[in-house]
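In the current project phase, we have settled on a layout for protein records. One protein thus recorded is set out beneath this paragraph:
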Amino acid sequence: MERESLEVDVLVVGAGPAGLCFAIELANKSQAAGQELSILVLDKAGEIGHHQLSGAVLDPQAILEMFPEAEQEGFPIHAKVKDDALLWLTEKSHKRMAGLLCPPQFKNHGNWITSANEMVKWLEQKAEAAGVEVYAGFAGSSVLRDDSGAVCGVRCVDQGLSKSGEEKSTYAPGYDIKARLTVLAEGTRGSITKQLIAENKLDADRNPQIWGVGVKEIWEVDHDLEGTVLHTGGWPLGTEVYGGGWIYGLPNNRLSIGFVAGMDHGNASFDYHAEMQRWKTHPFMADMLKGGKLIRYGAKTVPEGGLFSMPQSWGDGFMLIGDSAGYMNAARLKGLHLAIKSGVLAATAALEALAATEGIAQGDKLSKVDKLFNESWAYTELKKVGNYRQGFQKGFLSGSIGVALGTLTGGALPAGKKPMKSDIELYKKGAKPNPLPRFDGELTFDKLSSVFLSGTIHEEDQPCHLEVLDTSICVDKCTEEYGNPCQHFCPAAVYEFEEGALMVNASNCVHCKTCDIADPYENINWVVPAEGGPVYTSM
C-alpha cells in the first residue's frame, strides 16, 4: 500500500497546552537564533480544543513567563480567584476551613479560572502567528522508526474503513509524517505514548504511574459565585479512596463542579460517575445546585503518581511533555501550568539538539531537558510532593501524616523515593460496586444523559477504537473474579453485558482512557478512532 508522506523538522502530536506552548517557544527561539524550522502540530479532535478538559484553575506563572501581557492580549480569564476554602463533608453536614485553616495546597488567591478549550484556542492563534502549522482532525496511530530504531515520525490513522475493516469509497491511507524530532503531547495515557514507553522501557526504575478519574459538569445556577474556589474532602468517599470535589465560580451564574477519585483503592468496580452524582446529593451541594441546570459534562483521567512516576522523557528522535510525561501535581490538583512549563523546557533542549545535526535529533542532546527541569521551579514544586500519593496507599491516616510532614518541612519529609504500587496491583477480587444513587434528572443524572451533554459523536461505521484483546477473558475469567467491572468504571456507559455477552458502545466514548487503565487484566486497548469524540466547549 502506498502512503502519502510529508516531511517536517518537528512534529508535535497533540494540540493541548503542552504541545502548543512547545511549538510556540521553539518557533520563537529558532527564529531568534536564525535557525529556520518547519513545525507541525496535529490533533485528533475535529476542531482544536474539542478534546480539552480540565478543572480549570490555572496558576498563571508559566503562561506569564511566556506571555507577560497575556491578560491584555485576551487570554481567556473567566474570573480571578478572590475566595477559597476547603470543605470537609460528613454525610449531612460540613466544616469550612478558610484563611489560616485552609491547607496550603488549596489556596488559590491570584490564580485564574479559565477553560482548557478556550485556552488552547488562544494558544493556537499564538502558534500560527509564530509560523507553526496547526492541523485538527489528524490522529497519530503509531510511531515510525528508521533503521537504527530512532523515532522518525508518526503514521496517521487510516480513514474510510468500515466497522469490519473493509475499504469504503472514502478510503484513504493515513499519512506518514516524517520528522527529525517527534514530540508526544497526547495528554493522559496517550495511545502512541504508552506504546513508546513500553517499547523503549522509559519507565524502568520508576514508580508505576497511578491515575485518577475526574468527572466534570458545568451548571447554570440562580446565584453568583464568580471568583470563588472551593474544594471538598470526606464524604462520600471512604478512608480507602483518595479524592474529592471542586466548585469553581464562573461568570454569568455558572459553576464548574467536578469530582476526582484515585484509582488505587482496590475496587475494580468503583463507579466514578455514580460517585460524583452521590456527592451532589450532599445538603451543601444540593442547596447550591437547587433550581439550576446541568449544561455540560465530561470526564478524563489524570496522572497522579508524581515526580517518581515520571518516565524518561526523551530518546533518539522523540520527547514526551505534559500529561504524557506525568507533569501533574496531585496535591494541588493542578497540571496546566506544569504542562506549559514542560513544553518550554523541552523546546530549549530541542533547539540545541536540532542545531547539532541535520538528521534525527539525538537522545544524548535532548537529554538536556532533564537538567533544565531539575533547575526549574516545576521540579521544585513536584519534589516537595514527590511522596504525596504514596502515603495514601497505606490509608487515610498515613497519607494525612505524610501531608503534614511535607507541609512542615517544605517537602523534605518523607525523604527519599517511597515505593508505590500500580492501581491494578491493588485490586481485590470479588469487590462489589457501591449501590447506585437515584437518578432524578434534575440533580443527579444517569450516564447516557450525561454523555449526551458532552457532545460526543463518532462515525458508527468505522473500526472500533476500543480493542478488547481477548473476549474469552471477559466471559470466562473476569465475570467470576471481578464481576465485569468495565460496566461500572466507565463514566460513559460504553460497556454493557447482555445475556453474558460483552457489548461495546464505542460511540459513547468520551476519550477519558479509564478503561485502558482500569481493566484488571489490561485487556482493553484504547486506540485512536478515525474520527469523533467529545465536543468540549467552555470546559
User: Anything to note?
Assistant: The chain has a mean pLDDT of 97. The longest helix spans residues 336-355.
